[in-house]
Amino acid sequence: MSLPLDLSGNLAQLLPIAALLPLTAILMVLQRNPYQTLVLRGILGAIATLLYALLGAADVALTEALVGTLLSTTLYAIALRSSMVFRLALPEGDVLDSKRRALLEPWLQQAFLRLEVIDAPRGGSLHGRCHGQLGGDGELLIRSGRLLEQLLSLDGALAWRQAGGTIARLSPMGPAGAEAGAQPGAQLGVQP
User: Do residues 74 and 101 both lie within one domain?
Assistant: First the structure.
């Protein structure tokens, strides 16, 4: 069995491996795609495990491999899969036609989101259950201003508008909370 590397005589061998740690960490932080971040997190843990093993800290290397790489990457993958969803509410009884679905899915994929269609209960509250609503005439109302800005910056927004659809912000109160005598868009739940 070989002896662990020491810092005095084997610095030239350890330095390139050690330099990969901050490089991988910087790439991970700058990454926009959450799935690529997941892969980089696994690589970061594997590099740290290798470095600990080379330095003779087998217990720390094993802990890093199991907890830092395997467990945290698995939990992050589960959280990512369950949270990267755009829930779109349709009026009760309506079905998302294939033309609109063909426009929405690639557009949302550009923002790393999956489309999940839910039925809007008649007179019920959707607060917290959906991220947007779709009207019968192609009106897409999005609850979050930040998400609206992100989606408007993507190519799918232009395709949606060219297909005759409109995109607006859904008010926090929603259509049921609009007061009589309010601005014209307020009855639709749209903020001016």
Answer: no
The answer, yes or no, to whether residue 8 has pLDDT greater than 90, is no
Q: Which amino acid is at 88?
A: L
CA distance 120 to 23: 47
Cβ density class 130-161: b for 16+ within 10 Å, e for less: bbbbbbeebebbbbeeebbeebeebebbeebe
Q: What tens digit of pLDDT does each residue of 95-104 get?
A: 888 888 999 9
80 to 33, 72, 95, 112, 151: CA distances (angstroms): 11, 12, 27, 10, 19
Structural domain includes residue 1:
no
Helices (H), the chain: 11-30, 34-54, 58-63, 72-83, 98-110, 145-152, 155-162
Beta-carbon count within 10 A of 180 CB: 6
| Same domain, yes or no: 121 and 68 | no
Range of the domain at 108: 85-188
Provide the whole-model pTM: 0.64
Q: At what angle do helices 155-162 and 145-152 cross, to 10 degrees?
A: 80
Query: What single-letter DSSP state applies at residue 176?
Result: G
